[in-house]
Design a protein that fits this description.
Layout (H helix, E strand, L loop, with lengths): L2 H13 L4 H7 L6 E2 L4 E2 L3 H5 L5 E2 L5 H13 L4 E4 L3 H10 L4 E3 L4 E4 L9 E6 L5 H13 L3 E5 L7 H5 L2 H5 L3 E6 L5 H6 L6 E5 L11 H8 L6 E3 L5 H18 L1
Parallel strand pairs: 3-4, 7-8, 7-9, 9-10, 10-11
Antiparallel strand pairs: 1-2, 4-6, 5-6
Helix pairs in contact: 4-5, 6-11
Length: about 250
């Protein structure tokens, strides 16, 4: 349930096209639906403008499939992150119209009218960072942002980044995914005048400590427009970037 669907429902009651009893049945699961193992927050879109998202890691495939199908039945856009192959198979069996994105480890379903708000650039240092970058892309696109991918532009070949400066300049927010020493967000931050959301990835050799080195480097960035999310958290970066881009787009 989102604001537009709620207004349509109320307008149908007002016109007499929909009996109040049927409208009440459709609203019965607001603000949440209790499945026993999960309480689905159907009300979140009304509060925050973006729907609840399923974090599939740690859940049984059948649990994720049930949550996904219930959210789909409510008419909302649905996203499950960190979904492995058995989970994807279970979800697609329950909701065949869903789309599995293996590299992003995500499953998505768009049901609402597609409206785009704001531009986001998703940048990654190297091809090894693609799973995290693609998680960000799939999330941002489902939430209605216009996304441009700028991949394999790490600081080891800085000319590759400078070659895409014009594309960076068109973004309302930039997501930068990088492992190793995590230097790329600082460089990008010096090239753009918009928020840069840095995503440290668990890419690198032993002393990278599964992304901790990149995380600490990004937290100590000298570019003041850089903020940081947790290691490998492409979803969190995209969620925040979407809100920033949406706000900036509407203010223009």
């Amino acid at each position: 349930m989102n604001r537009n669907r709620l207004l349509e429902l109320l307008a149908a009651v007002e016109r007499g096209d929909l009996p109040a009893e049927q409208a009440s049945e459709r609203l019965a699961n607001l603000p949440f639906e209790d499945l026993g193992h999960t309480r689905i927050d159907h009300h979140r879109n009304l509060r925050s403008g973006l729907p609840e998202v399923i974090y599939a890691a740690g859940k049984e495939p059948a649990q994720t499939a049930e949550i996904f199908s219930r959210m789909a039945a409510a008419g909302s856009d649905v996203l499950a992150t960190r979904a492995d192959e058995p989970t994807a198979a279970a979800v697609l069996a329950a909701v065949p119209q869903a789309i599995h994105h293996p590299q992003a480890r995500a499953i998505s379903l768009r049901q609402t009218k597609e409206e785009t708000h704001g531009n986001i650039a998703v940048v990654c240092a190297g091809t090894s960072d693609l799973p995290v970058a693609e998680e960000a892309v799939i999330t941002a696109e489902l939430f209605g942002a216009r996304v441009i991918r700028l991949y394999d532009v790490g600081v080891a070949g800085i000319h590759r980044l400078l070659a895409v400066r014009e594309q960076l300049a068109s973004a309302h927010a930039v997501i930068v995914c990088a492992g190793m020493e995590g230097a790329l967000p600082s460089v990008v931050g010096g090239l753009v005048g918009v928020p840069v959301i840095a995503v440290p990835t668990s890419v690198g050799y032993g002393a990278s400590f599964q992304g901790t080195t990149a995380l600490l480097g990004m937290l100590n960035s000298c570019s003041p427009n850089v903020t940081v999310v947790n290691i490998d958290n492409g979803f969190g970066a995209a969620y925040t970037a979407t809100l920033i881009a949406r706000s900036a787009d509407r203010s223009q």
